[in-house]
């Protein structure tokens, strides 16, 4: 746990960012976060494996974008609390000139990110709600770090889970894409309930109920809807697939991860 609680943080209210940090084996969480995480893991022990699979997907996407696509700018929405192998470490490890803007709504995630990024002139973090694209895209830190006349990658890794249907995830994605230069990229990962057994579906419902009770509703969606967010983009092979199947580092796949999450990467049209 971080030594200092940022001003305004209610340690009696669970945070999705800090719960995710717990799943990944981090230490930046409070008692209320651990209570929610343990409730979820009691109902569905595989959630921790899915979290690690999601993180591995992010690492592979960033490596591809830097090493094969030539991307040097990243906007990481809902970035959470940085752990080993975060976006700037991967990207700048391949090219020190890469620039990264992290965005999260949780002040604890932002405070720890600021500590981690101290002295890094090519990475910054802002506290903002991903459901407010205008605030993020016009934020002084965003504009000072990213050049919107050049291609960049927008990363939406397991963040649209927390955007309700009423809040319009498709419209939200479109608003970010509209601000990007030709040849930019969108990466998305998202939980799904496609092709799950009745037993697994019951576990998923228990997970959703635990988050709902904690005021952090999560929405699983089908592969078809997730794929629709890439409409108008060129999907990079292998297109929208189960997380472990997207350009895997090895042949190993986990049955729960395969059933419960999809990921994809798309590119906007290049200039004619």
Identify the CATH homologous superfamily.
Vaccinia Virus protein VP39
**Which CATH-level-2 architecture?**
3-Layer(aba) Sandwich
By CATH reckoning, the class would read: Alpha Beta
Uncertain parts: none
Largest sheet: 8 strands, mixed
Question: For this entry, what is the oligomeric state of its chains?
Answer: single chain
Give keywords.
272 residues, alpha/beta, Rossmann fold, 11 helices, 14% strand
Helices and strands, with pairings:
Blueprint: H1 16-23, H2 31-43, H3 47-67, E1 73-77, H4 87-94, E2 99-104, H5 107-117, E3 123-127, H6 133-137, H7 140-145, E4 153-157, H8 169-177, E5 185-191, H9 198-213, H10 223-228, E6 234-235, E7 241-242, H11 255-260, E8 261-267
Parallel strand pairs: 1-2, 1-4, 2-3, 4-5
Antiparallel strand pairs: 5-8, 6-8, 7-8
Task: Give structural notes.
The chain has 272 residues and is of the alpha/beta class. The protein has a single domain (16-267), classed as Rossmann fold (3-Layer(aba) Sandwich), CATH 3.40.50. Helix content is 40%, strand content 14%. Strands 1, 2, 3, 4, 5, 6, 7 and 8 form an eight-stranded mixed sheet that branches. α5 links the parallel β2 and β3. α1 (16-23) crosses α2. The model has no long low-confidence stretch (mean pLDDT 91).
